[in-house]
Amino acid sequence: MSFKISKPLWQAVSLGAIAGSRAMSAPAITSHILSHHQTDNLANSPLKFMQSGKTATAFKLLAFGEFVGDKLPTAPNRIALPGLTGRFLTGALAGASVYKAGGGKAYLGAILGGSAALLSSFGCFYLRKATVKSTKILDPLIGGLEDALVIGASAGLAKSA
What we know:
The chain is an all-alpha fold and 161 residues long. It has 6 helices and no strands. It is elongated, with a radius of gyration of 15 Å. Keywords: Membrane, Signal, Transmembrane, Transmembrane helix. Residues 1-19 form the signal peptide.
C-alpha cells in the first residue's frame, strides 16, 4: 500500500494539540500510523524507532495508563511544570516524527507539535475547570469526555494518514 503524509504541518499541529490533552496519546497514534506505513524518510533518522510495532505498543500502554491516571484525585495539574514539560516533549516528538516522515525537517515539526501542545495544555485545562464549575458534573466524568475527544481525534488522524 502506498503511503504519503499529505498535510504534515496540520498533522504535526493536530498531534501537538492531542498531546496537550493527553500527553502519551500523541506519540501513541504517531507510532501506530508510522509502524503500519513505513517510510524511507525516517530510515537514517534518530526517529526511526517511531516506526517500530514494539514502540507503538509501548506508547499505547502508556496512553492507556494516562487515561486511567487522569481520573485519580492525585493526578498532577497538567499546567504544572513537570506535566507541561512532558506534554511539550511528547508533542514535539510526534510533530517531528510526522513532519520528517512527510519529507520535512524534523525540527520544524518539533516546534509545531511542541507549541501546539503548550497552547492546548492551557486551553484544555481551563476549559475542563470551567466546564466542571458551570455544570457541576464530576471532574472524572468530564475527563472521560476529554478522553473520548482524544480517541476520536486520534482515530480521525489515523484514518486520514
